[in-house]
Design goal:
GO terms for molecular function: ATP binding; transmembrane-ephrin receptor activity. Its main location: membrane. It is found in: Membrane. The chain is mainly β. It has three domains: about 110 residues, no CATH class; about 35 residues, no CATH class; about 90 residues, Immunoglobulins (Immunoglobulin-like). It is built from one helix and 16 strands. It starts with 12 loop residues before the first strand and ends with a strand. About 0% of the residues lie in helices and about 30% in strands. The radius of gyration is 33 Å and the shape is elongated. The strands form six sheets. It has a four-stranded antiparallel sheet, with no helix packed on it. A four-stranded antiparallel sheet has the order 12-11-15-16, with no helix packed on it. Strand 2 and strand 3 form a beta hairpin.
């Protein structure tokens, strides 16, 4: 907010309502500026306040405030020595609320008293509810806020591709078509060594098999696996894992995307 460039009324809230006057004046360069001045300087027991409009800090981490003002010498107003002031206080309030003038000081309301729609995949059972519950099949995690969207179980990974090189293999895949509106998806890789072409004849791989970037909670859509046995069939299963335990417990075993080597 820069009032030096304002050409219309600033619209600040004043207290008392008739205690201030907004006028146009000139700065030292004869540029027109908007200013506020106290009107009733000769009245006793004065208590004059100004409240600016809301200032959106956006992404700023630090706020600098520069105020230009002039103060009249109290000695020139001898009849109000008990309340004349040559200093003032500056207060600020960090808030996401709109402020309005109350009977004394200010009162608050959150983004004005209007109703909002429920977040995505949620609903309310009563009018003007303070919390929207998730629809069937959708969930919020423990770290999600009450105003966050409700998320669902993601679909299976797609288009698994394997590149075999003697006793190692590189697996790559595409993310699920539907990630359930979450950004914390990870993947597990299940390795099985098979004795025949049938899947039921496969056993979990032993600890000698090496996963270059690990086999659990992978954030990338690729993995390299080495120290495999030559001339041995393997089955690799890519599983997507949502980052919320509630979704994990609700997730039925999705059809695995496999690459057999």
């Amino acid at each position: 907010m820069d009032t030096r460039t304002a050409t219309a009324e600033l619209g600040w809230i004043s207290f008392p309502a008739n205690g201030w006057e907004e006028v146009s004046g000139y700065d030292e360069n004869l540029n027109t500026i908007r200013t506020y001045q106290v009107c009733n300087v000769f009245e006793p027991s004065q208590n004059n306040w100004l409240l600016t409009t809301y200032v959106d800090r956006r992404a700023a981490q630090r706020i600098y405030v520069e105020i230009r003002f002039t103060v009249r010498d109290c000695a020139s107003i001898p009849s109000v020595l008990g309340s004349c002031k040559e200093t003032f206080n500056l207060y600020y309030l960090e808030t996401e609320r709109t402020l309005s003038q109350g009977n004394r000081g200010v009162e608050y309301w959150a983004n004005a008293p209007f109703l909002k729609q429920c977040p995505l995949n949620s609903r309310s059972t009563v009018e003007a509810a303070t919390l929207c519950g998730c629809r069937a099949g959708f969930y919020r995690g423990d770290m999600d806020k009450a105003g966050d969207v409700c998320t669902s179980v993601p679909s299976a990974p797609r288009n698994v591709v394997s590149v075999v090189n003697q006793t190692s293999v590189r697996l790559e895949w595409n993310p699920p078509r539907d990630i359930g509106h979450r950004g914390d998806l990870s993947y597990n890789v299940v390795c099985r060594r098979c004795h025949s072409g049938e899947r039921r004849a496969c056993q979990p791989c032993d600890d000698g098999v090496a996963f270059v970037s690990g086999r659990r909670k992978l954030t990338e859509t690729r993995v390299e696996i080495s120290k495999l046995r030559a001339h041995t069939p393997y089955t690799f299963e890519i599983q997507d894992r949502p980052g919320v335990e509630m979704l994990l417990s609700a997730k039925a075993e999705s059809p695995p995307m496999e690459s057999k080597v």
